[in-house]
Amino acid sequence: MKIAILGAGESGVGAALLAKAKGLEVFVSDMGQIKEQYKAKLATAAIPFEEGKHTEERILEATELIKSPGIPDKAPIIQKVIQQGIPVISEIEFAGRYTDAKFICITGTNGKTTSTLLTYHLLKNAGLNVGLAGNIGESLAEKVIEDKYEYYVVELSSFQLDNMYEFRAHIAVLTNITPDHLDRYEYSMEKYAASKLRIARNMSNSDYFIYNADDHTINHALDAATISGTKVPFTLQGKAEAAVTIEEQHIKISIPSYEGSVDTSKSSLIGKHNQYNTMAAVAVAKLLKVSDKDIAQALETFRNAEHRLQEVGVAREVTYINDSKATNVEAVWYALEGIKQPIIWIAGGVDKGNDYSSLVDLAREKVKVLVCLGKDNEKLKQAFGRVVPIIAETTSIEYAVRLSRSLATPGDVVLLSPACASFDLFKNYEHRGQRFKEAVEKIVLKK
To answer: How do residues 108-147 score in pLDDT, each as one tens digit?
Structure first.
């Protein structure tokens, strides 16, 4: 076999290393510049690569192509590959061929990273032989080279799911489906939802599909889907068919291998969305027979990912929270809903066609100041000008933090939760979150 790989980031290089390890002929091509760390890996493994171009003749010689999730199918080079009848797959699909480990796969528009990290933490804390991979930032293919784990917890984006065909999850989790990345799906929610449901492909009745029964889009999509795995719905709204519910800080579970409740009172996660994430993760743990005691202990020690409702400091009884990963309205709704104190809200950036109407009531109830951080803030000002007492705008995150500190009173929360992409002022949401943390440390905590 000749394997061509488009994209030399984490997933592409991981796939290249696995292909090389399995004795396949492999060539890597990236239209952009390849990071030095990845060049070094390719060079060490003697894998030929190119950057800044795609040599079509060489790519079209392949018997199979593995593409980066970030490359859309409508890209000209992908169209030519498809026209030649060359199969196009994802790194995850490729990696799945070379291991007998069981996969716990997690997707959703929001919450998938937290659910993935929490699930991994619960299983690892209980002593299971488990690895972490996928959209979280670690190549599954590269980990499969050594293949030392019995289980892998894998975060999957819709883009990764689109090019998966034979891959099978033993346990699949779908946290929610809300509008996002619709430009990749012809602006169709039905097509986007169908992409998410690919996580349950190829299941048998010995596998499990854990999903949010309160999500209308999921329920609608399930009406048209055939899922062979055993369904494990979870709910906060008391849906009668649900197998997982929450009652007074206890998660109640009714599944074939377990009937009972798990204490979540020591968990540091806040907000309704994190109750959903916790239900999903605990359901996975119970399906894998983790004890109630081990789950309760792990919930107490879990710390969320950077830039996701991350407390970065407290000064003068004011708490500063970095939620830079909240790049859409739904994620911000969960942040505002989950915080009970008065909020100074820092938001803005590159608007993705946002409809802010769902946030208006929460802003009226909880937000005392809105600091618009972006080059174009008109849409935010129009949406919240009549409900938030004070609105300011800036293109400086340092000024945003300084202003927030000056307007905060004891008991307030200063929340960076942008609802927008970061590319007008920052490299990405991580850069934005890091700059916020640095500003808090410099302006607030050292004063």
So the answer is: 988 899 999 999 999 999 999 999 999 998 999 999 999 9
Determine whether the annotation assigns residue 304 to a binding site. Answer: no
Share of the chain residues as helix, strand and coil, in percent rounded to the nearest 5: 40, 25, 40
Both structure tokens of 154: 């894998």
53-100: pLDDT as tens digits: 999 999 999 999 999 998 988 999 999 999 999 999 999 999 999 999
Q: Map out the domains of the chain with their CATH numbers.
A: 2-89 (3.40.50.720), 93-301 (3.40.1190.10), 310-445 (3.90.190.20)
226 is in an annotated binding site: no
To the question of whether residue 119 is assigned a binding role by annotation, the answer is: no
Q: Is 219 known to sit in a ligand binding site?
A: no
Q: Binding residue per annotation — 114?
A: yes
DSSP E strands: which ranges in 279-411? 310-315, 318-322, 343-347, 367-373, 390-394
321 touches 309 (CB < 8 A): yes
Name the pTM for this structure: 0.83
To 5 degrees, how large is the angle CA 71–CA 72–CA 73?
120
- Ligand-binding annotation for 277, yes or no, is no
**Known binder of ligand: residue 301?**
no
> Could you tell me if 106 and 210 are in contact, meaning their C-beta atoms sit under 8 angstroms apart?
no
Half-sphere exposure of 114 (CA within 13 A, CB side): 28
